[in-house]
Amino acid sequence: MLVLVAPGQGAQTPGFLTPWLGLPGAADRVAAWSDVIDLDLAHYGTHADADEIRDTAVAQPLLVAAGLLAASALDIGVFGAVAGHSVGEITAAAIAGVLSETDALLLVRKRGLAMADAAAVTETGMAAVLGGDQDVVLAHLEKLGLTPANINGAGQIVAAGTAEQIAALVAEKPEGSTKVVALKVAGAFHTHHMAPAVTTLEKAAADLAPAAPALRYVSNKDGRIVETGADVVARLVGQVANPVRWDLCMETFAELGVTGIVELSPGGTLTGLAKRALKGVPGVALKTPDDLVKAAALVAEQTA
Q: How far apart are CA 224 and CA 216, in angstroms?
């Protein structure tokens, strides 16, 4: 079974959208989306620098737009499940047919703005802890007052908290861990710091009319397959202030019998985690349209 995954915030790099705008109709689609959400996606995806696209209000819609462009070049019918990491869950919801592309982009625009506002209240950030025993790492984070915002599996836990708490973690990494890496995000996402954003999204979600997922949708909340559109949306709202359990998502992939993974643009992070946690399962990361050839080859191999 093939699984399609969408990356989250921090995966973006300057100019990463440029090659995707060369796909037939892509530039027009991005222009239309930009008008709807009042954000020049083409500019930010092609000409903006790293600091500009680090802005939460920009990064999140940009990532969803990129994921939808890449997905449109694939045969979604060959995939047995879909999931997204953090904001990638909105991309996944659109791919699964829970939300229209327009509704997904309007929702992620509101999400990005609300999370940016919440992040502005206190200087906060996130850092990835690599290696070490999970229980030891979690105990160390608790001692420093940090939240394990992303438990990603494959020996990676992302901590979130105030700037002072992150600095303390960098200065004193958990026993047994190999490295602490600050992430390209502008807030302590998936923690209590994001509670105001949840309230905003609850109001935005009230205007949606979600459909049941057309393919298995695996949730960040607990790795479970979600059966109804209403439950998908409720989880999208609550997940803003709750930890991402990507480790449990990958466990579900394994239980479903995953035989291959394709990661949407800007790919690399999730296939990297899968390489370590789902050993022997081939993956393709879509970084540019050239990688679509590799994805097609994986699909052909899996469906022969």
A: 10
Across the beta sheet with 156-162, what order do the strands follow?
A: 147-153, 156-162, 124-130, 179-182
Residue holding tokens 């699964």? 96
Residues 62 and 100 grouped into a single domain: yes
Task: Please report where in the chains the tokens 């079974």 appear, as a residue.
Answer: 1
Which pLDDT value is given to residue 264? 98
Specify the CATH number for the domain of residue 145: 3.30.70.250
**Token pair for residue 285?**
């990361």
DSSP 227-262: --HHHHHHHHHHHTTS-B-HHHHHHHHHHHT--EEE
Contact 232, 84 (CB under 8 A): no
Tokens of 60: 């999140």
89 and 222 inside one domain? yes
- Give catalytic residue positions: 86, 190
Are residues 156 and 256 located together in one domain of the fold?
Answer: no
The overall pTM is greater than 0.70: yes
pLDDT reported for residue 303:
80
The whole domain housing 246 covers: 2-120+191-303
Check which CATH number belongs to the domain holding 23 and give it.
Answer: 3.40.366.10
pLDDT digits (tens, 9 = 90+) for 92-118: 999 999 999 999 999 999 999 999 999
Residues 92 and 201 grouped into a single domain = yes
Say what the pLDDT of residue 185 is.
79
Those residues of the chain that have pLDDT short of 70 are none
3-state helix vs strand vs coil in the chain, percent to 5:
50, 15, 35
